[in-house]
Amino acid sequence: MKRKHLLTLVVFVLTLSLNAQDASVEKSIFGIQTGFLGVWIHNESQLSKTIALRTELGLDAGILGGGIYENTSTFFGPVITLEPRWYYNLEKRKGKSKRIDGNSGNFISIKTSYHPDLFTINLPENVVFLSDISIIPTWGIRRNIGSHFNYEAGIGVGYIHIFEKENITVLDDSDVAVNLHLRIGYRF
User: Fold this and answer.
1) CATH topology for 23-187?
2) Partners of 137 in the β-ladder
3) CA 33, CA 53: separation in Å to the nearest integer?
4) Model's pTM, two decimal places?
5) Could you tell me which residues come within 8 angstroms of residue 92 by beta carbon, excluding any fewer than 6 positions away?
6) pLDDT above 90 as % of the chain
7) For residues 48 and 78, what is the distance between their CA atoms, to the nearest angstrom?
8) In the chain, at which end, N or C, are there fewer CB atoms within 10 A of the end residue's CB?
9) pLDDT-derived band of residue 17, with 50, 70 and 90 as boundaries?
10) Among candidates 88, 82, 80, which has minimal Cα distance to 50?
11) Sign of the four-CA dihedral 67, 71, 73, 78
12) Distance between CA 32 and CA 156 in Å, rounded?
């Protein structure tokens, strides 16, 4: 009888340990984030156990100033972002009993953002906003603070293409883009 209980206990423990190693991104996450340069709403949908597709709508801040524009000014414009993210350390975090809920982990992504010329907030009248698209490979982290709050940081360098308008001269229509973000958010 003792062998039967011991065998049952061993099978139960093995089942728990096998299930404990099954780390995965969440099926769907919806939230809002803010940072130094804007505010965004986002959704992350599971594509595989370690890959999620982040879709994002928001307002990015822009800063004018320098040699071409004499005054310093801050404005906001809309941004649409698609970003596949590979969360590469979920198994390791779960093995160390660290949180992975809300896709808390390190990630590598390809952040693709489009700034349409739909509207701007606080753009000076004598300045013309030009649409652009950027593709930036990014490394980042996300960590949870409590059950709903999180913070995120990331860095990357990529490519940006500025779309020209009629009667406007653009000195360089493509260039190097940098993604440096630090955000705090709320997950619903």
Assistant:
1) Porin (2.40.160)
2) 110
3) 17
4) 0.81
5) none
6) 64
7) 29
8) N
9) very low
10) 88
11) negative
12) 22
